Amino acid sequence: xxxxxxxxxxxxxxxxxxxxxxxxxxxxxxxxxxxxxxxxxxxxxxxxxxxxxxxxxxxxxxxxxxxxxxxxxxxxxxxxxxxxxxxxxxxxxxxxxxxxxxxxxxxxxxxxxxxxxxxxxxxxxxxxxxxxxxxxxxxxxxxxxxxxxxxxxxxxxxxxxxxxxxxxxxxxxxxxxxxxxxxxxxxxxxxxxxxxxxxxxxxxxxxxxxxxxxxxxxxxxxxxxxxxxxxx
Length: 232
Prior knowledge:
By secondary structure, the chain is α/β, with parallel strands linked by helices. It has helices at residues 13-24, 42-54, 86-89, 101-116, 138-151, 153-156, 172-181, 206-217; strands at 4-8, 28-35, 58-63, 120-122, 162-164. It has a single domain, classed as Rossmann fold (3-Layer(aba) Sandwich), CATH 3.40.50.620. Helices cover 37% and strands 11% of the residues. The longest helix has 16 residues, at 101-116. It starts with a strand and ends in a 15-residue tail after the last helix.
């Protein structure tokens, strides 16, 4: 019997590729998404579309409101940075960092994995193109895995949780190429931090710029909808 795995699925490019990789590696995927007060909530619809297209055993959308704390351009009225240079994007921790977000998401994933009897949890973090987030580093994932071993009944009973981050050392172009090889339809995915009311991407935030560069590096056009594309 194929092993079960929980996949953290935002509906974005990275998490969708991660889901495709988990399926290709033989796991039965259980997708977990979050409605956490993010201004780019269109990603929930994208996550539903991706889960349906790639085929998951179950898709859960958990409601948690991180707006009660704020502290990020994604969960408050802080301005989303636009049109930043590549070197500026990679320098320091950006205002789009959501305090403790991945720790919270992984905790939910850990809980569901224990209920499912799954020992594998996939997350689409990446430390190459976007290394500014402290909770996207391998040291953090290793520490969380060790914590899970101590914090759960499954861990205490010897069923250690394994956290998989298959995109950790890949560039955005490499991630896209891997997904295309696996048949991912990137038209379904949404990455923008501040999309228009119709869900189209702004083309100017850090997430859009990194995504567009990844496709451009492969000589491809991004199939997702954009309100206004930045000059080439």
